[in-house]
């Protein structure tokens, strides 16, 4: 936690900090260390989120970490002087955000690493801290700081994706590390996931929240699937169906002035029009969410019947492959865990969507983004495999004696089996045996 924070070096120090309780093995050592780290994060967030949240948020989390009547532990490092030599604008991006991310990474390491003694995880504080960060979208909550909030809002909006990514990792580690201790906090996590899906726009954060949902389903089973059913289906269908007007149409042919200004001007220019921004109720994440997704213009024909032809002013936004794959994997787990429950109002739509996606993916990925061949990036082959796995889960969990679209699906698996030497061919062979 120095003045100039190097991201890679800070993560190494965070891993070392996470291993310190193992030097002196005891429940109290581990609990004291994570308590200090969480208090440090909370104190840094108090300064970072001025005007962007209710002032009581920090105090509420502090009461969870240090119950009334107890003395707070010594601070983690000399937090009074940290970053003191930096200008306030530089300090936020160079010191505050990287330090918060490094400390969150330290908590992730402590929660997921082996420890020889059973310890009690501060679940309520961890979930409350994650909620505090994840539900900040950059919009103003407090009008008491008219001279400083606009610049601060610009800085925090720029760093929000990084903070959200770090605390999604922390929430994932909390679920993974708490195991049997998670049950009393399941309702709070479900509410947090449901609320965050509404503001998650960027591909990286949306993929991570799908990963959290997958972990919840696999760790808590059919009971969790009942509570997450609606949010999973609605978001997955919106991400997978590029013809869904409600989800995929970005702007109308004649957008309003406030909307067009939020797209065409940089945020630094918009600071001069503070009242206009506040009235538009557009969050920082919503303004940043447009660039990561590919946009198609009216030169592409519409594939859905009944839709009006797009005019030159229409702009349509298509979900990246990484998000589609995450949505398919989540639907696959949902179908395997609780696919036969409450099927009356959603299974028909999901089954039809999955067979259409698998068919389109089979036809050389028609209608989807071009695949890339770079190492570590998703490609159409990954998407095809995910769509076939979800389709098989749809067949195996079908409430009907004969699954819908079984003939079409069997033909797809037979075609995939012919691609000898590929992972897809191996899976298609397994699928045909399973059916």
UniProtKB/TrEMBL annotation:
GO terms for biological process: rRNA processing. Residues 254-311 are annotated as: Disordered. One of its GO terms (cellular component) is nucleus. Residues 254-266 have a biased composition (Polar residues). Residues 297-309 have a biased composition (Low complexity). PANTHER family: PROLINE-, GLUTAMIC ACID- AND LEUCINE-RICH PROTEIN 1. This is Pre-rRNA-processing protein RIX1 N-terminal domain-containing protein.
């Amino acid at each position: 936690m120095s003045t100039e924070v190097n991201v890679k070096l800070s993560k190494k120090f965070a891993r070392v900090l996470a291993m310190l309780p193992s030097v002196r093995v005891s429940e109290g050592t581990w609990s004291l260390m994570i308590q200090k780290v969480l208090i440090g994060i909370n104190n840094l967030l108090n300064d970072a989120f001025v005007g962007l949240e209710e002032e009581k948020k920090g105090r509420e989390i502090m009461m969870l970490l240090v119950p009334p009547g107890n003395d707070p532990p010594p601070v983690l490092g000399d937090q009074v002087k940290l970053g003191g030599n930096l200008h306030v604008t530089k300090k936020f991006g160079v010191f505050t955000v990287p330090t918060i991310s490094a400390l969150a990474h330290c908590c992730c390491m402590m929660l997921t690493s082996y420890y020889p003694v059973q310890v009690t995880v501060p679940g309520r504080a961890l979930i409350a801290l994650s909620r505090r960060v994840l539900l900040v979208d950059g919009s103003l909550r407090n009008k008491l700081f008219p001279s400083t909030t606009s610049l601060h809002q610009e800085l925090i909006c720029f760093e929000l994706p990084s903070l959200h990514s770090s605390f999604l990792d922390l929430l994932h580690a909390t679920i993974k590390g708490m195991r049997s201790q998670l049950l009393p906090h399941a309702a709070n996590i479900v509410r947090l996931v449901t609320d965050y899906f509404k503001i998650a726009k960027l591909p990286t954060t949306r993929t991570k929240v799908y990963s959290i949902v997958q972990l919840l389903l696999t760790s808590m089973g059919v009971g969790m699937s009942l509570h997450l059913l609606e949010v999973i289906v609605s978001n997955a269908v919106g991400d997978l169906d590029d013809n869904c007007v409600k989800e995929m149409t970005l702007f109308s042919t004649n957008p309003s002035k406030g909307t067009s200004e939020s797209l065409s001007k940089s945020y630094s220019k918009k600071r001069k029009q503070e009242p206009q921004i506040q009235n538009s109720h557009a969050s920082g994440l919503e303004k940043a969410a447009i660039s990561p997704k590919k946009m198609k213009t009216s030169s592409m024909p519409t594939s859905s019947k009944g839709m009006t032809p797009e005019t030159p002013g229409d702009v349509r936004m298509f979900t990246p492959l990484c998000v589609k794959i995450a949505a398919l994997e989540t639907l696959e787990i949902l179908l395997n865990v609780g696919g036969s429950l409450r099927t009356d109002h959603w299974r028909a739509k999901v089954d039809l969507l999955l067979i259409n996606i698998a068919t389109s993916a089979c036809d050389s990925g028609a209608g989807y983004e071009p695949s890339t061949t770079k190492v570590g990036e998703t490609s159409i082959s990954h998407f095809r495999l995910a769509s076939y796995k979800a389709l098989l889960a749809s067949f195996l969990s079908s409430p009907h004696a004969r699954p819908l679209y079984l003939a079409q699906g069997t033909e797809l698996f037979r075609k995939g089996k012919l691609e000898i030497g590929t992972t897809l061919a191996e899976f298609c062979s397994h699928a045909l045996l399973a059916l």
